[in-house]
């Protein structure tokens, strides 16, 4: 490429950048972008309440208690230096 083509490409890029910056400063453009980025209130709304039966809240709660129980068994085996079943008197 010769220097004249490079200069023309550079000028075109600068013009695009300038017009993009001016467009971003425009309040209508900003409002349109904000409107587009807003989600429906239904999709944002997350209900973190207990419901009877199979629900995501129940599954998360049960999973957390299972992790705590598994960690407790591992700690009991580490500190007592015997298996959990033997420590609990099952075996």
List keywords for this structure.
91 residues; mainly alpha; 75% helix
Task: Describe, in plain words, how this protein is organized in 3D.
The structure is a single chain. The chain is mainly α and 91 residues long. It folds into 2 domains: 45 residues; 46 residues. Helices cover 75% and strands 0% of the residues. The protein contains 5 helices and no strands. The chain starts with a helix and ends with a helix.
The overall number of domains is 2
Please state the structural category.
mainly alpha
Main sheet specs: none
Segments where pLDDT lies below 50 for 5+ residues?
A: none
The H/E string reads HHHHH
Strand content: under 5%
Mean pLDDT equals 75
Helical stretch count? 5
Helix content: over 70%
Number of strands: 0
Roughly how many Å is the radius of gyration?
31 Å
Topology:
Blueprint: H1 3-25, H2 27-37, H3 41-44, H4 56-80, H5 84-88
In short:
This protein has five helices and no strands.
């Amino acid at each position: 490429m010769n220097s004249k083509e490079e200069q023309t490409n550079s000028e075109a890029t600068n013009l695009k950048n300038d017009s993009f910056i001016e467009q971003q400063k425009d309040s209508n453009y900003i409002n349109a972008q904000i409107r587009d980025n807003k989600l429906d209130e239904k999709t944002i709304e997350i209900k973190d309440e207990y419901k009877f039966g199979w629900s995501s809240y129940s599954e998360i709660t049960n999973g957390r208690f299972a992790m705590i129980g598994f960690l407790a068994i591992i700690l009991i085996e580490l500190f007592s230096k015997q298996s959990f079943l033997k420590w609990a008197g099952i075996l």
